[in-house]
Amino acid sequence: MYEIKYHPKDISQLSFLVTGGAGFIGSNIVEYLLKYGAKKVRVLDNLATGRLSNFDGFKDNTAFEFIKGDIRDLDTCRKACEGINYISHQAALGSVPRSIKEPENTNAVNVDGFVNMLIAAKDEEVSRFVYASSSSVYGDEKSLPKVEEKIGSPLSPYAVSKYTNELYGKVFQNVYGLQVVGLRYFNIFGPRQDPNGEYAAVIPLFVSKIMKRETVFIDGDGEQTRDFTFVENAVQANVKAMLTDNAEVAGNVFNIAVGANFSVNQLYNQTQKLLASDHKATYRAARTGDIRNSLADISKAQRLFNYDPKFYFDQGLAITVSYFKEHFENN
Question: What percent of the chain is modeled with pLDDT above 90?
Fold first, then answer.
């Protein structure tokens, strides 16, 4: 856990719900809130992609509560929202390729489940509902850097689901008065990211394959760029978006990134260096539905809730590679 405090106010009398809190980003948010003395931090997760081991550092904290349940069930959502002041909604089925293969599951979780959570939050009079959107919403919009007000047509079912979240969030604010804030994540990475399975994240996949000297695939020519964003920056954004006193934040969506982009080739080469390896990658066809280049304008989040990313690409990558190197060596 990093010794950086992002919120100015006392949270000892506040209760938080983190959906998807057994997952990569969610568990980091949970850990932060518990560290700084939240009255209650409740997690709702069905463990489809989350892991109980992500709770190891804080599961004995008396303020921590875990509900195993699915956001596709409205009654479960209502139960999870009881007595909650703020929600950080991270529960989702990620991955563009998975959404292309399983559009029905992506929609059921990311759209139906999202609406269930909005309904439950409204009915339980939650103070603010902050949720994870995605840079995939920009679709075929080619201009860089990406600004929140200028999006294109979505390129995948996943992108459609996240854009639908933004539309529903705005409607629930306008119609019901629920304060809703969307965070468009740009390629979040870091410790606890899933290293296994068909849709494993790229950095743990690179580390694992390089260490085992197995074939590493890079999709396309590797020159596609991403605004790779260390997970602690996403934690900061969620905490500040939930707790800010600026009323202008509600009803908005914000880019959450660093504001600098790097190619997948640069990512791979830097990972090689950190592992002191000369293992070469193999190139294959580009993936359907992928955006070519991505770079965020983060000035809106900086202006409205003082978002200030503390971890940049090189530092975040070094921390992440070290974590997964140790993980793979011990397993």
Answer: 85
**Cβ pair 64, 274 in contact under 8 A:** no
**15-186+231-258+297-309 adopts what CATH topology?**
Rossmann fold (3.40.50)
Whole-number Å distance between alpha carbons of 223 and 211: 23
Peptide bond preceding 145: is omega within 30 degrees of 0, i.e. cis?
A: yes
d(CA 277, CA 270) in angstroms, rounded, equals 10
Element containing residue 172 per DSSP (H, E): helix 157-176
- Total Cβ atoms within 10 A of residue 94: 25
pLDDT tens for each residue of 202-217: 888 999 899 899 999 9
- Catalytic residue check, 323: no
List, for residues 225-271, the tens digit of each pLDDT value: 999 999 999 999 999 999 999 999 999 999 999 999 999 999 999 99
Q: Could you tell me where the beta strands, DSSP code E, fall in 69-163?
A: 86-89, 128-134
Residue ranges covered by each domain of the chain: 15-186+231-258+297-309
What burial class does residue 153 get, using C-beta atoms within 10 Å of its C-beta: 0-12 exposed, 13-18 middle, 19+ buried?
Answer: exposed
Give CA–CA dist 209/212, Å, rounded.
Answer: 5
Q: Tokens standing for 222?
A: 């590797």
Cα distance between residue 271 and residue 151, in whole Å: 32
Q: Note whether 184 and 134 are within 8 A (CB).
A: yes
Catalytic residue selected from 32, 158, 268, 323: 158
